[in-house]
């Protein structure tokens, strides 16, 4: 699994792009690729848990959604995660 952390600014482009991004995440959640996702309290950023096994798969997913390169959205961390409880 991979954890992706985002930070947000107040750029209006981010808010305009968010509905399509959330729809994309919801589709990946239905197939089990996204385990959970959501913004931090205060909307300063977000966390997404992707159930993929390698960084190349994660990079393909991030490249498929223009939200990750939208003004106001910054990917601050990509971390491989090995949970032992779920």
Automatic annotation (TrEMBL):
Pfam family, one: YCII
Residue span(s) of domain YCII-related: 12-75
Taxonomic superkingdom: Bacteria
Signal sequence residues: none
Membership in a protein family: Belongs to the YciI family.
Protein name: YCII-related domain-containing protein
Organism: Micromonospora deserti
């Amino acid at each position: 699994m991979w954890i992706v952390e985002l930070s947000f600014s107040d750029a209006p482009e981010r808010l305009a792009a968010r509905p399509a991004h959330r729809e994309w995440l919801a589709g990946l959640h239905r197939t089990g690729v996204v385990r959970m996702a959501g913004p931090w309290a205060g909307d300063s950023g977000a966390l997404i848990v992707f159930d993929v096994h390698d960084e190349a798969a994660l990079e393909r997913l991030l490249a498929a959604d223009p939200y990750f390169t939208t003004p106001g959205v910054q990917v601050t961390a990509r971390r491989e995660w090995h949970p032992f409880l779920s």
